[in-house]
Amino acid sequence: MSEKPLKILLIEDDPGHARLIKAMLVDASTASTLNLPVTLVHADCLSTGLERLSQKSSFDLILLDLGLPESQGLTTFNRVHAQAPKVPIVAVTALMDETIGVKAIQAGAQDYLVKGRMDSNVLVRSIRYAIERKHAEAQLEKNRINYLNLIENSADGFVVTGRDGAILFVNPAAEAIFGRTLEELKGELFGFTIMAGESTEIDITRRGGETGTGEMRVTETEWEGEPAHLISIRDITERKQAEAQLEKNRINYLNLIENSADSIVVTGRDGAILFVNPVAEAIFGRTLEELKGELFGFS
């Protein structure tokens, strides 16, 4: 089964340079440097190249001359990149325009080549690098989207703050915890001490004065290329209320025992005394401190 050819769109107005690139690719294929058959589609102007990109046939790579008669420099790159944002682009510049190639990479190109300084090996290396880099970027973007989806759909609240503590993002769960929307919170100071790696409980005041408790964890991250903090907040209000109720019940139970008219003794499974109430102290004529740890002595 033959491999699918690598389909490259060359946008180049100079027919001599177009023939040179085609010859380099033929040499690379013949020498097995590229390890893939190549289909080269030539467009001699920008408008033809954009028309090719608008058609259903897809390309694996674009070789783009940034010095076309009808468009120059970054304007050329931006128009092609906007038409085919998912296709890797290798910019081709003249010797005196090498800085434009660098700017093209900053704008999203995968690599650039300089006319007069390329041979088949340099061309093939650039093609491979551009395709691999674009695939890596696509995977990173996919991972980023999956990560954001996890945050968006998490039951825990997530807040992203800048290093200055200003809120950059909150997920729906965080909106529910604070009782405010992202639009209302964005730009405000977070208001709690941010310590990466720490887990702390925070008191939350919602709109209308309702209070709650959150368990907060902080990790360092990046947001839109800048250092940031990712803060997870788990609403533990119900848990804290349940704990408070249990403690209240425990105290009430102890008060009942303390004030009971009956003698009450608590022992472990081994029969050792753990607790006696005042009535039991009176019956045995000994204090809790004296009785604690002794065997109860009755079946």
User: Quick one: biggest sheet?
Assistant: 5 strands, parallel
Q: Which blocks of ≥5 consecutive residues have pLDDT under 50?
A: none
Helical amount among residues, as a percent range? 40-55%
Q: What kind of oligomer do you see?
A: single chain
CATH hierarchy class name of the largest domain = Alpha Beta
SSE sequence, one letter per element: EHEHEEEHEHEHEEHHEEEHEEHH
Count of β-strands: 14
Radius of gyration, in Å, reads 36 Å
Write down the overall mean pLDDT: 88
Q: How many structural domains does the protein architecture include?
A: 3
Strand content: 25-35%
Structural class of the helices, strands and pairings? alpha/beta
The backbone outline, from C-alpha atoms, is elongated
In summary, what is this structure?
The chain is of the alpha/beta class and 299 residues long. It has helices spanning 15-30, 46-54, 73-83, 98-107, 120-153, 172-178, 182-185, 237-258, 278-284, 288-291, and strands at residues 6-11, 38-43, 61-65, 67-68, 71-72, 89-93, 111-114, 157-162, 167-170, 199-205, 211-223, 226-235, 265-267, 273-276. Helix 1 crosses helix 5, helix 2 packs parallel to helix 3 (73-83) and helix 3 (73-83) packs parallel to helix 4.
Fold and architecture overview:
With 299 residues, this protein is an alpha/beta fold. It folds into 3 domains: 6-148, Response regulator (Rossmann fold, 3-Layer(aba) Sandwich), CATH 3.40.50.2300; 154-237, Beta-Lactamase (2-Layer Sandwich), CATH 3.30.450; 239-291, no CATH class. The protein is built from 10 helices and 14 strands. The protein has helices at 15-30, 46-54, 73-83, 98-107, 120-153, 172-178, 182-185, 237-258, 278-284, 288-291, and strands spanning 6-11, 38-43, 61-65, 67-68, 71-72, 89-93, 111-114, 157-162, 167-170, 199-205, 211-223, 226-235, 265-267, 273-276. It has a 5-stranded parallel β-sheet, with helices on both faces. A hairpin with a 5-residue loop joins strand 10 and strand 11. Helix 1 (15-30) crosses helix 5 (120-153) and helix 2 (46-54) runs parallel beside helix 3. The radius of gyration is 36 Å and the shape is elongated.
